[in-house]
Amino acid sequence: MNIRTLGTRLRGAAALALLPLLALTACGSGSGDTGGAAAVGAQASPAPTDDPVAAVHEVDSVAALLPADVRKAGTLRVGSSIGFPPGAYYPNGTDKAPAGQDIDLADAVAKVLGVKLERQDASFETILPALGSGKYDFGTGNFGVTSERLKTIDFVTYINDGQGFAVKKGNTALKAKVTDLPELCGLTIGTGAGTTFEATLTAQKGVCAEAGKKPYDVKVYSENAATLTALQQGRIDVIMSTINGLRYQASQPASGTTFLGEFHRLDVGFAFKKGSPLTKAFQAAVDELIKDGTYARILAKWGTAASAIDASRINPAERR
């Protein structure tokens, strides 16, 4: 980008300084993975002030589904990927508590179960492998349910999100909605490391050759801020990430992005090691929150009501 005046330089620097604040998490659902922590010291949009979790209480019949040793300990360790609103982010900097839809839902489930959460921030791509080692009891990060993940991970669903695309505002290289991957041929796509987005793009890379077109290139980033910065600087043409995250990002004028619509929906859930004894209790807790209205209030707070589910499921088949 050619910058001809000092004033323009300063405006450009200010715009780039805002990028980490608006960065989104690279969901692992191929839709919902929050890849990469927010930039240190960054402040994002203020969190809504209502607190639907405050009124949630322990439900004895649901708490009874937890293993006896867990009930006795009274705590669960959660590996939490903190990235961008509305899923999970730092509205007041990384030295303060995170906020977001995933934070509220996990906290509400814990209250129904009568346990406390020991939240440990972790990068998105490290959480699923760490479940098997016992480092965490469960993970959150907008993890999408895929056939490949179901081989080693158990899921308890709490929302459906999915995969979408966004471009820099004013970019006309793509039409209003991407419906087929060959539309991306010849472009450079940025996405998050370890996400279903990366897996989808890698697995389908041959579609361009089949269509007689130049292949698309995939750039993988470990932090969402880096992905957005790359888009604004023209190093990538399009971002592939979560539907809810990209839609939120595009609603923030400083991001300078345009959301290109939903590409593929996926169920999103709490993640557990295979064979975890916690899944039935978590499923019952989510269903309790749906029944008593807390679930709807949480989604309304974060503007994600369109992603609501009617009931939680354990290990559903990947949506096609």
Give a verbal description of the structure.
By secondary structure, this protein is of the alpha/beta class. It folds into 2 domains: 60-161 and 266-314, D-Maltodextrin-Binding Protein, domain 2; 163-264, D-Maltodextrin-Binding Protein, domain 2. Helices cover 32% and strands 20% of the residues. It has 11 helices and 8 strands. It has helices spanning 6-22, 60-63, 68-73, 101-113, 124-133, 196-203, 207-210, 224-232, 243-250, 279-292, 294-302; strands at 75-80, 116-121, 138-140, 153-168, 188-192, 217-221, 238-242, 257-273. The protein has a 5-stranded mixed sheet, sandwiched between helices. A 3-stranded parallel sheet has the order 2-1-3, sandwiched between helices. Helix 4 links the parallel strand 1 (75-80) and strand 2 (116-121). Helix 4 packs antiparallel against helix 11. The longest helix has 17 residues, at 6-22. It is globular, with a radius of gyration of 20 Å. Residues 1-43 have low confidence and may be disordered. InterPro entries: Solute-binding_3/MltF_N. Keywords: Signal. Residues 1-25 form the signal peptide.
